Amino acid sequence: MIPIGILEVGECYELESRNLRKGVWDGEKFHGIRYKFGELFMDSEIHYDLDDHYGTAKAICKLESKTDLIAEIVALQQKVLEQLNEINELSKGAL
């Protein structure tokens, strides 16, 4: 595990956490992509050392490349856009 004092804000880490495999550190939480009930969405987890009760994430190693996480975020954005387009089309039919 990487000690909390060594984590770099804005860097990407492989995690041992409840819901995230990878995340970007903001100084308090890791932000990443979560998969639940067949859906992908953005989520965050508090570092284990910051909160004994709610802290659920520890950094295992710093990722040399952010490509994988960026690809996951782009895929999630595309999915959201598709869902918004579907909603828009459905609302047009209701008018």
Explain how this protein is built:
By secondary structure, this protein is of the alpha+beta class. The chain has one domain. The protein is built from 1 helix and 5 strands. It has a 5-stranded antiparallel beta sheet with strand order 4-3-2-1-5, with helices on one face. Strand 3 and strand 4 (39-46) form a beta hairpin. The mean pLDDT is 85.
* Strand numbers in spatial order across the main sheet: 4-3-2-1-5
User: What spatial form do the alpha-carbon principal axes imply?
Assistant: elongated
Biggest sheet record: 5 strands, antiparallel
Q: Write down the oligomeric state.
A: single chain
Helical content, roughly?
A: 25-40%
Number of strand elements: 5
- Can you count the helices? 1
Distance between termini?
A: 56 Å
Q: What would you report as the Rg, rounded to the nearest angstrom?
A: 16 Å
- Overall residue-averaged pLDDT value: 85
Low-pLDDT residue intervals, each spanning 5 or more residues: none
Could you give a short description of this structure?
This protein has 95 residues and is of the alpha+beta class.
Q: Which helices and strands appear, and what pairs or packs with what?
A:
Blueprint: E1 12-17, E2 22-25, E3 29-36, E4 39-46, E5 57-62, H1 67-94
Antiparallel strand pairs: 1-2, 1-5, 2-3, 3-4
List descriptors.
single chain; 95 residues; alpha+beta; five-stranded antiparallel β-sheet; 5 strands; 29% helix
